[in-house]
Amino acid sequence: MLRILLLLLFLTPTTSVWGDDILVIGVVEEQSSYNRKPVVRPLFKKDENSWSVLNSQKIYSKEKLPKNLKWSLVFDGRNLGEIISSDSNPDTYKGNFSRDNYLGVLSAEAVPKLGNREKRFWKWGGLPENRPIAVNTYPYYSDAEKWKRDRDEASLQSLKKQVFVKLKSLIGNAFHCNGTPNWDWSEIEVEIGNVDVFKVYKNSSNQVIFSAGLAVKHRTDCDGPVDSSSMPIWFYLDRDLKTIGYELDLLEAADFDNDGDVEFLFSHSGYNEDGYTLYESGFSQRYDYYWGYH
Predict the structure, then answer these.
(1) Among residues 248, 252, 244, which one has the least CA distance to residue 274?
(2) β-bridge mates for residue 290, sequence order
(3) Measured between alpha carbons, how far is 291 from 189 in angstroms, rounded to an integer?
(4) How many domains does the chain divide into?
(5) Do 36 and 117 belong together in one domain?
(6) What is d(CA 110, CA 24) in angstroms, rounded to the nearest whole number?
(7) pLDDT in tens, the chain (294 residues)
(8) Which of 102, 131, 228, 242 is 20 to 30 A from 6 in CA distance terms?
């Protein structure tokens, strides 16, 4: 009986921001490739008309977030449940704050293991066994725009033709990695047969988010990292074609602030750099939470 009372006391509203005026979104992810335990990384805090990036000790401390936070797990327009995080050392100095500011999960078993069948969401330290999951301190997770993966080959080929001229200018000089024994490279022409469309998402209004770039066969067996322009580049197609960015992978589309418009959360990984990017509806405003390693 005492154990039950203590549990109820612990889960009272004083331990969370659920219902407060503070709305924060983040991710629950594996701490590292050698420590798979889940941790929560608070990323962006909703202000009146924009978002604050919680990537410094000064900004994060200013928000005075409670030690314990309750989070809604957001995936594909659904709520996968709730978890509670705890900041065991809120006043500890972190030399690399944006990299090292993550929160423990009080009940790791409550975090769904969604796997990573497509081997996505790479980080500088390796590939996660389970994909990150977006989290929100409010129970806002809906996707009224109905963004879904489009795997139709005809759609991919059509997009390749539409994006090719823009893609060619963004790639610039292109190279093919020759691999062993010399691990050298050869310059190639950027022709439509040398590029591919990789991931495509379409909503109920036929707006499209997709990634395209130099075909995988040209950037395999490379001696070291390749230039970001050789990696997939993300685009948004509505009436016009808009470049979203480099070294990204779409993690979640949801109305995180319940204003009727969908925001987009991307995972980011580049040379000596990882992080997350948040875009507002229509890709009108971008916010980056990035960190380096050395």
Answers:
(1) 248
(2) 275
(3) 34
(4) 2
(5) yes
(6) 20
(7) 444 434 444 444 444 445 467 999 999 999 887 888 999 999 999 998 999 999 999 999 888 888 999 999 999 999 999 999 999 776 677 889 999 999 999 999 999 999 999 999 999 888 999 999 999 999 999 999 999 999 999 999 999 999 999 999 999 888 888 888 877 888 888 899 999 999 999 999 999 999 999 998 888 777 776 777 778 999 999 999 999 999 999 999 999 999 999 999 999 999 899 999 999 999 999 999 999 988
(8) 102
Burial status of residue 162 (CB atoms within 10 A of its CB: 0-12, 13-18, 19 or more): middle
**What is the C-alpha separation between 208 and 158, in angstroms, rounded?**
12
The residue type of 65 is L
Whose tokens are 């950027």? That residue is 190
- Rounded CA-CA distance 197/156 in Å is 6
What is the distance between the alpha carbons of residues 178 and 226, in angstroms, rounded to a whole number?
13
Structural domain ending residue among the three candidates 136, 167, 190: 136
Closest CA to 116 of 249, 291, 274: 249
If asked whether residues 237 and 166 sit together in one domain, one would say: yes
Q: CA nearest 137: which of 213, 44, 49, 271? A: 44
